[in-house]
Amino acid sequence: MRLVVEADDFDTAIAFYRDALGLPEEAAFEGDGDARVMILDAGRATLEIANPAQKRMIDAVEVGRQVAPRLRVAFEVTDATGHTAILTEHGADLVAPPTVTPWNSLNSRLDAPAGLQITLFEELDEAARTPDPTS
């Protein structure tokens, strides 16, 4: 799977997702009309940051018109609290701080570059699970 995201400020998005979040660069391409795209390794998927010209070109080629919607993306990290702090220092707006979920992960929510709302999640071990007061 490859997720394609249009970024009005391509350079800021690359600095955030590649440099601050740490997604390794797999490939980068440039085309006519200032079209640029960078493909980042996001683990089991890739996060493709494309500028508006590239996104319009992809939509035109694959669909014949602009149709790509916005969505929320979740990234698994090893330290949700630490990564949340780093990403807010690099331009993300905190929506919700790291919170233990009923499914035993520590999740935070951020408004990030390229118009994405992202979730950072850290899978917790059994010892970190919030005790059930009814047991």
From TrEMBL:
Gene3D superfamilies: 2,3-Dihydroxybiphenyl 1,2-Dioxygenase, domain 1. InterPro entries: Glyas_Bleomycin-R_OHBP_Dase, Glyas_Fos-R_dOase_dom, VOC_core. It holds the Pfam family Glyoxalase. Residues 1-123 form the VOC domain. It comes from the Bacteria. This is VOC family protein. It comes from Mycetocola zhadangensis.
